[in-house]
Amino acid sequence: MSLRVFLLFLFSVGFCFSQNGEVRNSYSFDASAYYGSIILHNPDISHLISEHPAGLILGYNRKTFGREDWQQWYNYPDLGASYIYQDTKNPVLGKTHGLYAHFNFYFFKRNLQFRIGQGVAYATNPYDRDINFRNNAYGSRLLSTTFMMFNYQKENIFRNLGFIAGLSIIHYSNANVRAPNTSTNTVAFNAGLVYTLERGDSEYIKREKQKITEPIRYNLIFRTGINESDNIGHGQYPFYIFSGYADKRLGRKSSIQLGTDVFFSNFLKELIRFQSIAFPENNIDADTDFKRVGIFVGHELFINRLSIGTQLGYYVYYPFDFEGRLYNRFSLKRYFGKKIFGVVSLKSHGAAAEAVEFGVGVRL
Q: In the prediction, which pLDDT does 280 show?
């Protein structure tokens, strides 16, 4: 599943940056070493934090110059791909190899760079109940992974060679596709070199900014996937989510949302049955309804045909207590035309992931 998340994101951003093939582009490559710490976000992983992880970040970037309007809106960002190697310095956690699609956004005369990437990582030593039962962070070999970098970058200090340094945050999780899934977050300092290839066109195109207005639009989405409860060995079960919301465009970049979700999460049905038998003192009825209904507010950030969504929800129908009434969702959406879109979402309760959701929707 994590692989599908990465492939969809890579496919999406590739379309966002597609340009006329006869126009020359500018590219750069960067390599940074990093050294940091795994943050204790959950006391359950305290036994896994023994040393300082170190690794390598490799990046490939393609620059934009405003040939499409949205590139000017975001101060001419880069499209890129990254590889991250991490040695946790802990034999229980092992090592990870990650591939990402990323964006670079620039500030302060393009000297400050913010990079955000989403991808898939391979864990060399995941949980195994017989030979590696202490690794409660990674329940599977394939992990969903997100990283952010806040860099100072100076290109072409000596000919085409420049310098890059900053702070990195790297997250690994399988989003409860399989238990256990305590996950890890690494904060590290990075420094390295950037090499810029000779470019054929370095002029930034500036166009007159045009106002975008739309009436209220109505959206319908169906999402699905598989996940597992936090109890190891309970098995993976499919879930189905039906959502509807209204959105109002605020301008070129964003819109706000108000809507509702109906959740049919079959892992909860098994969890309810288990708790009714294993913990009779909790007085949980085996026939307790596993369905949930939530209402949410959200925001959508448009980057050409790709958009990034964030939602905060509250369960108004909540017969079984699981992780609290508040939930949040982070989404990557790709529009195919003006009405149809595909979406990949991570739904969680605070920092506790519940599921990776794959969906299709229509905007009317």
A: 86
